[in-house]
Design a protein that fits this description.
Elements lengths: L1 H11 L1 H8 L2 H18 L21 H17 L1 H9 L11 E3 L4 H7 L4 E7 L4 H17 L4 E7 L4 H6 L13 E6 L2 E6 L15 H7 L2 H39 L2 H9 L1
Parallel strand pairs: 1-3, 2-3
Antiparallel strand pairs: 2-4, 4-5
GO molecular function, one term: disulfide oxidoreductase activity
Main location: mitochondrion
Protein name: Thioredoxin-related transmembrane protein 2a
């Protein structure tokens, strides 16, 4: 089953791998590697090559060449281990609907402190993190369900804005395992975050799913408070706007009664 999954993943990402391998550097390296193997094994050519084998057979690899090939293969695998994993196993980018505001290093502080009555839930993420990309649909779905004027959702790419990472103490190191991080802000101040961080700077294990986020951040309670705030604003707006139409309506009723007065006076006469 694992072999079939790996094969399907490879075939799915084959166009991306194909474009990646078409770079001149990789083409030249592949050509030189194949050329060395062909020359060493090709009859008529391998006899003229030098060899340190005891039997003097120059058409076969000696121990020194085998060690070099194994050493280079190990280095290539170690260097490209992370890149290969990201290229073949990284989940696709989320492109669905969402009610999320994206911050930069210059706008995040201003937005969080603009209105003390607004509660912000901000995700600190990095584009290269597969965990962040897997969490993107969950966070977008929460924003669709709970976003309102008093409860807002935001995101900031700390892989791009390193100053924001240092300012809010969210590490981008893979060893810290702090990506993604959800921070709750009220009045521009941090109230809580998940995952929590221990004294060594490592994240405490926490599962990023919809149920845990709703429970830990009390989203239902925050949403109800935000709705009451919205209703209060709407009532104040109606009272403020309703005074002027009320006066105008009285004037209209008075004007409407004025033409009836002469008719009534004629009837009384």
């Amino acid at each position: 089953m694992g072999l079939i999954t790996g094969l399907c993943t490879f075939l799915y990402h084959f166009p991306q791998i194909y474009k990646w391998l078409l770079k001149p550097y990789y083409i030249t390296s592949l050509f030189m590697t194949v050329a060395f193997l062909v020359v060493r094994k090709a009859p008529g050519l391998c006899e003229h090559l030098a060899s340190q084998r005891e039997d003097g057979n120059s058409c076969d690899f000696d121990w020194r060449e085998l060690e070099i090939l194994m050493f280079l293969s190990a280095i290539v695998m170690m260097k490209n281990r992370r890149a290969t994993f990201v290229m073949t196993c990284k989940p696709p980018l989320y492109m669905g609907p969402e009610y999320i505001k994206y911050f930069s290093d210059k706008t995040i502080d201003e937005e969080l402190q603009r209105d003390s009555r607004v509660t912000w839930i901000v995700e600190f993420y990095a584009n290269w993190s597969s965990d962040c990309q897997s969490f993107a649909p969950v966070f977008a779905d929460l924003s669709l369900k709970y976003n309102c004027a008093g409860l807002r959702f935001g995101k900031v790419d700390i892989g791009r804005y390193g100053e924001v990472s240092e300012r809010y103490r969210v590490s981008t190191s893979p060893l810290a395992k702090q990506l993604p991080s959800l921070l709750l802000f009220q009045g521009g101040r941090e109230i809580m975050r998940r995952p929590m961080v221990d004294n060594k700077g490592r994240a405490v294990s926490w599962t990023f799913n919809e149920e845990n986020i709703i429970r830990e951040f009390n989203l239902n309670e925050l949403f109800q408070k935000a709705k009451k705030l919205n209703k209060g604003r709407a009532l104040k707006g109606e009272e403020h706007n309703g005074t002027q139409p009320g006066e105008g309506s009285d004037e209209l009723h008075a004007d409407a009664k004025t033409p009836e007065q002469p008719t009534e006076s004629k009837k009384d006469q």
